[in-house]
Amino acid sequence: MNLNEIYTELILEQSRNKRNRRELENPTHEELGHNPSCGDEITLQLRVEEDLIKDMSYLGHGCAISQASTSIMIDEVKGLKVQEALLLCKKFIAMVKGEISDEAELEDLGDAIVFENIQNLPARVKCAVLPWYTLMNMIEKDNTEGSFIPL
């Protein structure tokens, strides 16, 4: 099995993963992310306590890439401080835009590094970055209620 097959398998596995797709009890933050060009739509829910992302989940629908990216993002940011999660969002977006390619610099993205080559599929970039922009917007605006995010 080559690296592309492993990445494809991880994306498919994560897109079907229901562990992070659930209604969160007592969220402190909720944000709608919508990609009008393809119909991907997610609602991120966070529970932040003392500047720490204690729990996180999502509801929504979309292609395998958007769903996998959302699930992987949740796995990577749950348990982080809010500002650490924000930095991870910015790093992921920079990676997808091709602005960062140094493997050592990308290590803290964990499984999200699977999307490194998505830049070679321009039509799918918005699918991969949707949850990351949604979370970044939520943190930067400290949104406790939903809002529309233009991509």
UniProtKB/TrEMBL annotation:
Compositional bias ranges of the Basic and acidic residues kind: 22-33
Residue ranges, annotated region (Disordered): 18-37
Transmembrane spans: none
Domain NIF system FeS cluster assembly NifU N-terminal positions: 7-127
Family annotation (Pfam families): NifU_N
NCBIfam families: SUF_scaf_2
Protein name, UniProt field: Nitrogen fixation NifU-like protein
Organism: Peptoniphilus stercorisuis
